[in-house]
Predict the 3D structure of the following.
Amino acid sequence: MDWRELYKTKLCTAAEAVTHIKSGNAVVLAHCVGEPPALVDAMVANAAQYENVEIKHMVSLGSGAYAAPGMEKHFRINPIFASANTRGAIAERRGDFTPAFFHEVPKLFREGKLRADVLMLQVSPPDEHGYCSLGPSVDYTLQTISSAKTVIAQVNANTPFTYGDGIVHISVFNHIVETDSPIYEIQPPKIGDTEKAIGEHCAALVEDGSTLQLGIGAIPDAVMLFLKNKKDLGIHSEMISDGTLKLFEAGVITGAKKSMNKNRMTVTFLMGTRKLYDFAHRNPVVEVRPVDYVNHPTIISKQYKMIAINSALQVDLMGQVNAESMGLRQFSGVGGQVDFMRGVAMGEGGKSIVAMPSVTVKKDGSVIPKIVPFLDQGSAITTSRNDVDYVVTEYGAALLKAQSLRQRAKNLIGIAHPDHRDELKEEFKKRFDEAY
Ligand code: COA
């Protein structure tokens, strides 16, 4: 059958498509910008028909209406990364949370350790041969197309057609819903003086020819402000956002010195504005590949001079990093942080950096230090003290790798906020029987 004929047989409305979800099913939502809003809305509108449908995803940018109070009879959320729309439900025990390294997620679906009955995803319109692109999000989405029994695709004219591995034939979809609604966008963050100072300290650690992994937010964008005079940087990163575009347009990012995937920006997902998605559309420079390739520590370790820059909620005086929970309250997840920090540690010539402000100021005005004697009780240890090369705050860079517990505590106190150094020095004296 001609693919166009086949395509027509799969077309339906969103309301019809979600009738294929059954009570007790595990429904996987494609990641981040790949989440299909029309299908999620239709599923929530049909909630009365379901009992105990498990919802799984990593970063979710959608409404999360399935996690609202009262929905727990119909939906049981069980994400691998907590976002603004699911944190409350997890904390109120109306849902669960499953910790997992990002690079492992496809394998967990492949081996059936994570169940996927239905996958709902968003893709580009098909090309002339009947192939759609997964666009901004290939990560675990590509694997779950094979793992799920039912695959429902929202074909969206606004999804960019990206190159890499996320190009699939329409025959893999069981049901297709057409839309042309805007896809999720994240606006560039405001960069303040603190972030600029952190960015400058991080950039000083980046040598020409390095390959970068940067996350999203004000700190990664601030780092990029100070990389303008570097040469031949490369990108091998879980994700990129708009900040990376400026460095590419300025000729700083060439990828010419990468050990693998030379002259390409290798990522597993994209998250930014329309400008980024238009740039990535049919652009061979951007290759979007599965997360069990991009984030696999053994792959990362092959990139010479790999620089991983990630953030944290707290770092203790031994260099243990909590990047995901406030005590027992799950705030985010490990994501790709450990994938990259481990990959750097296994490779040669690289540096792993935890970059964060020295304090956080809460909405009620209270100031909380982020370099602490002990992590808050109940907090996750996201990255072990063995894997961190540097911790950077606005006060400088503290070297941890190959430093004794005494020396690393000293270095960390040196970059803590001045208002909190006395308390840390007292702990230092207690711990090492020596004045700081
Ligand atoms: N104690 C209590 N609250 C804290 C805190 C601390 N030590 N540190 C930060 N916070 C609060 C902030 O006040 C802010 O609260 P608000 O939302 O009420 O304003 C919130 O946590 C977020 O802080 P912010 O500094 O804006 O964090 P961020 O957006 O830069 O994210 C992480 C920082 C660590 C949460 C984030 O990088 C993450 O989830 N990392 C793990 C995943 C990862 O690294 N992936 C790889 C990169 S793609």
User: Anything to note?
Assistant: Residues 421-432 form the longest helix (12 residues). The chain has two domains: 3-178, 193-432. The chain has 15 helices and 24 strands. The two ends are 77 Å apart (CA to CA).
